[in-house]
Amino acid sequence: MKISKKLIVIVSAVVAVIIAAIVAIVLIGKEDTKKEEETQPVQSGGYKDCVINFAKAVEESDAELMAKAYSPIVERNDNYEFDDVMREIALMQHRYFSSDYGENFKIEVQFEPESELDDEELEYFRENAKSRGYDGEITEGIVANSIFKITSNEGERTVYAFFAIVKYDGEWGIVDGDFDE
User: Fold this and answer.
1) Could you say which DSSP state residue 42 is in?
2) Interatomic CA distance for residues 161 and 48, integer angstroms
3) Of 2-11, 57-66, 94-103, which range is least confident?
4) If you ran DSSP here, which 8-state letter would residue 41 be given?
5) Beta bridge partners of 146
6) What is the pTM of this model?
7) Do the bridges between strand 115-116 and strand 138-152 make them parallel or antiparallel, or are there none, so unpaired?
8) Cα–Cα distance, 98 to 104 (Å, whole number)
9) Which pLDDT tens digit goes with each residue over 14-35?
10) What is the C-alpha separation between 40 and 29, in angstroms, rounded?
11) Are 83 and 70 in contact (CB under 8 A)?
12) Where residue 116 falls among pLDDT bands split at 50, 70, 90?
């Protein structure tokens, strides 16, 4: 039986298309997995996770990551749900950084030595939580001093970030913060 050259070319083309489709599906699957891994919150349980999750949330304007960074006691107004507050913070911070660094910026977080919140500062956050109806316990707090190395199409800049972070019912969460360039 003689196979024509035309048939060999057609079969080869079909096999090539199938192989290309399989490779494309595998590569797209890897990209999706990589993106999912990038947006997953860091959760080793320490206060540094809050700062790292904050930075990721700002990059991606991601309310869910922002909620992982903040303590629930930061809810500013009884008229708003915690998720709405986190969505607003994520959007506001993303806009702030985007206005200076463009849309496609990345934040690398570096840590400097932290300092403990004193008794007066801890009491302020305890009273604040109680006044909003939270009956959990704030057992400790720190000021996380960090450096945000921001890279974008417009270059690289350094921003110093300071976060008051408390341990409320065993979970670390940001309750206040500030930036300095």
Assistant:
1) P
2) 12
3) 2-11
4) P
5) 111, 161
6) 0.71
7) antiparallel
8) 8
9) 665 576 667 667 666 655 544 4
10) 17
11) no
12) very high
SS3 87: helix
**Encoding tokens for residue 155?**
């270059």
User: HEC string of 53-120?
Assistant: HHHHHHHHCCHHHHHHHECHHHCCCCCCCHHHHHHHHHHHHHHHHHHHHCCCCEEEEEECCCEECCHH
C-alpha 23/C-alpha 35 separation (Å) is 18
Give the position of tokens 């300071």: 162
> Mean pLDDT throughout 147-153?
91
| pLDDT value for 35 | 45
Distance in angstroms (rounded) separating the CA atoms of residues 164 and 145:
9
Task: List the one residue out of 95, 86, 101, 89 whose CA is nearest residue 181.
Answer: 101
Q: What does the pLDDT read at residue 67?
A: 84
Tokens of 54: 């904050």
The first and second tokens of residue 166, run together, are 């408390």
* 51 in Cβ contact with 68 (< 8 Å): no
Report the distance separating Cα 26 and Cα 49, nearest Å.
32
Question: Among positive and negative, which fits the CA dihedral 46, 47, 52, 57?
Answer: positive
**Beta-ladder partners of 177:** 163
Handedness of CA 61, 38, 35, 151 (dihedral sign): positive
Burial 145-181 (b: 16+ CB within 10 A, else e): bbebebebeeeeeebebbbbbbbbeeebbbbbbeeee
Are 53 and 41 contacting, i.e. CB atoms less than 8 angstroms apart? yes
